[in-house]
Amino acid sequence: MTNNLNFFSSNLKILREKKGLNQSQILDFKRTQWTNYENGISYPKFIDLIRIANFFDITETDLIHYDLNKPYIKEANSDKYIELLEENRELSIMNRKLARENYKLRRDRREKQVSKKGILASKRKRQQQQTA
């Protein structure tokens, strides 16, 4: 069974070379850091994976799971394949937006709970002071 993360490393090199860039020209990564990614020695954090995918205009899924050395598009199915890729990209973008929105909602709910606990604590303290 092939490890799909092997595609990630080789895909980085393919995409970088297609853009005609050297390793030190990609976002704000150090050359040694990028070399380690391309050689499969280390892998980026999730947020950096998203940045890399956006930089190369590819979905995170395609970057990790598909071997970009192999042609996946067959002439008879190319329109359908391109349509599916575009749909997948749109869904990835929507998923990211929903994840951000979910994070904000959870953060706001936590802040309200903390605030509510603080208000309740200060009410109790006032009540105790009034009864004393």
Characterize the structure shown.
The chain is an all-alpha fold and 132 residues long. The chain is 70% helix and 0% strand. The longest helix is centred in the C-terminal third of the chain and has 54 residues, at 78-131. The chain folds into two domains: 1-70, lambda repressor-like DNA-binding domains (434 Repressor (Amino-terminal Domain)); 71-132. The model has no long low-confidence stretch (mean pLDDT 82). The protein has five helices and no strands.
Strand percent estimate: under 5%
Evaluate the radius of gyration. 24 Å
Structural category is mainly alpha
CATH topology of the largest domain: 434 Repressor (Amino-terminal Domain)
Largest sheet: none
List the defining traits of the structure above.
2 domains; 434 Repressor (Amino-terminal Domain); 0% strand; 132 residues; mainly alpha
Summed up, what is this model?
The protein is mainly alpha-helical and about 130 residues long. The chain has helices at about 5-20, 30-40, 45-55, 60-65, 80-130.
Please write out the topology.
Elements lengths: L4 H15 L11 H8 L7 H10 L4 H6 L12 H54 L1
